[in-house]
Amino acid sequence: MLYLGNTTRCILALLGFLSAIFFPPYVPLAVMGLLALRFRAWEVLLIGLCIDFVWLPAGLSLHPLPLFTIGAFILVWALEPIRKEFLLR
Amino acid sequence: MMMSLYRQSESRARRRLFFATLFVVVLFFADLISGGHLRALVRTATIPVWTAGSRAASAVFGSGFFTSRASLLRENALLQQQLSDAEQRAAGYQALKDENDSLRSIALLAGVEKGITAPVVSSVLSSPYGSFLIGAGSADELARGSIVLAASPDAGGFVIGRVGDVSAHTALVNELFAPGTALEATLKGAAVMLQGRGDNARADIPRELSVSVGDIVTVPSLGGRPVGVVDNVVSDPASSHQEVYIGLPVSISSLRFIYVVSR
What we know:
The complex is a heterodimer. By secondary structure, chain A is mainly α. Helices cover 74% and strands 0% of the residues of chain A. Chain A is globular and about 40 Å long. Chain B is globular, with a radius of gyration of 24 Å. Chains A and B meet through helix 1, helix 3 and helix 4 of A and helix 1 and helix 2 of B.
């Protein structure tokens, strides 16, 4: 069961990184959501940061906002109560 | 005992998540302070992945494996092989033809304005911020803010964006019609404010202004260059304004090369 969980997590994480490069933004967002809902996944933060690093113009003004990094923080920390219900025991 | 082990693993996982959060925050601010050096590294790393992925996709789909598998199964082994070879050659020829057409349109632009031709090296659909990567950078004397043109075989050059971040061999192009952007433009001699929507732009214009599909929209701050054509006009008799949707005469997702005007 645990092995299956880890495999799913790895596949989803890989899919998240690849979809950040190849697919429209809603695909990595959905993958991040799935990962964050099912696992206490630090990968979500890295996928969010990766999307912003690749596509967001650099600048000190923080405009436009790094939406995917912020979204990853929200997914990872705000979903904690819901995630507790879905976590593998 | 079980409960205690579970609590330990819970707290370990939470600690790991906390340190990952801290790590991401540190990376983000390190990148800001370094002027985008980290993101330049990440972008450089994505280009080989994108190139390999798009090559694999064109090899798989260009071979006709998915489109003609049923018919191929009905053919004998020799015909299958011949068909497959012919399709591969046709796909290769089509790819070269597309590239040739694209470069020929850009060559016309090069005759009018000084600049450089650069390949598009990323998806133009994946960015949530309306940006894409091109395979030219500061080593090719590309400067931040340079105007990026797409060549349309029928309508000439259209501005599609400006060069944003520049690293040695890549640059990020910020699209003019990126979601949430505003741009002052001219339509039929009247000043209009374009609101970027990603694929196209929208503007509210007075009802008195007579506009029809195909009218060209120009931007004074970009040297009066065209940025799009009117795609659709939505007029409500109850409103004093009409909505105009402006798009590009070329499909931005099919762009393989763009032309960057020298500053």
